[in-house]
Specification:
Pfam families: HTH_1 (PF00126)
CATH class of the largest domain: Alpha Beta
Structural class: alpha/beta
Radius of gyration: 32 Å
Family: Belongs to the LysR transcriptional regulatory family.
InterPro entries: LysR_HTH_N, WH-like_DNA-bd_sf, WH_DNA-bd_sf
CATH architecture of the largest domain: 3-Layer(aba) Sandwich
Helix content: 40-55%
Protein name: LysR family transcriptional regulator
Keywords: DNA-binding, Transcription, Transcription regulation
Number of helices: 11
Distance between the termini: 42 Å
Largest sheet: 10 strands, mixed
Strand content: 15-25%
Shape: rod-shaped
Amino acid sequence: MDLVGSCKAFVSVSETGSFTAGAAVAGIPQPVASRRIAALERRLGERLFDRSTRRARLTPFGRAMLPSAKRLVHLADAMEHDAKLAKLRPLLVAVPEICPTRDLAELGAQARALEIFLEFRAAPPGERAELVRTHEARAAITAVPAEDAVWVVPLGLASVERPESATIHLETLRAGRSGAPRRRVWIQPEDDVPHVRDRVLRVRDAVGLPPAQVAVADSLTSAAASVYGSADLLLCSAEQARELGLQWRPIGEIRLARGFDVTAGFGADADHLRLRLREGVARCLGASESEGNG
């Protein structure tokens, strides 16, 4: 039995004094209103209306039950209102600082069409999962090794100069006899994670570059500024290189990629991003989807 629906019919009929008019107020057919009230009477064990007259007149028992029925209806209405507000409450997502504003806005519009309301908070990779843990964000796009990722972004090196070869080898950055300044490789904050940074450093050591020749920048802007003003190289994606007007090449000694997955406090929030909004998230990251996860 639908207790709330029966009480709504009971209250509407009692206020209008008519089963027909009360059903119209409740937004249901008159036979449905009659069945719901009859079911409520069976449950309560007593008649609510005197059916010996043409008008729907309350019995003494009906008058006694009416205040409780009204309270239940009001509570149900309040709950439905609160549910609508809760659905409109934004899902705050911690996202990489590399995500372009336009792509995030388009992702937000795509989500709204699915009645999902997103807000974004840009943060470096080391902070995004922590924002979920501390309940400052409901979900985060987190950095993971490419083999465990939902979204993958291949990485290479970009410079101002036009490349002479299809790839660039770190061993070619060793200082020669010309006395020219050593070319540095700049790692931006998004790639300052063990599964990217440490692999670059291992290659650096293997080919004999000094430690200072591979450095982590404070920001993508400062890294790009260093590259614009020198022959230095930026570790980045091909899409970032295009946005910055740089020439991009893969690295000869190693295949590198950013990997991304979702961390969320609730499975439904993760599913929104991994499944329903998967392509939109990929655009924000400049990513392809991993064949190995999902």
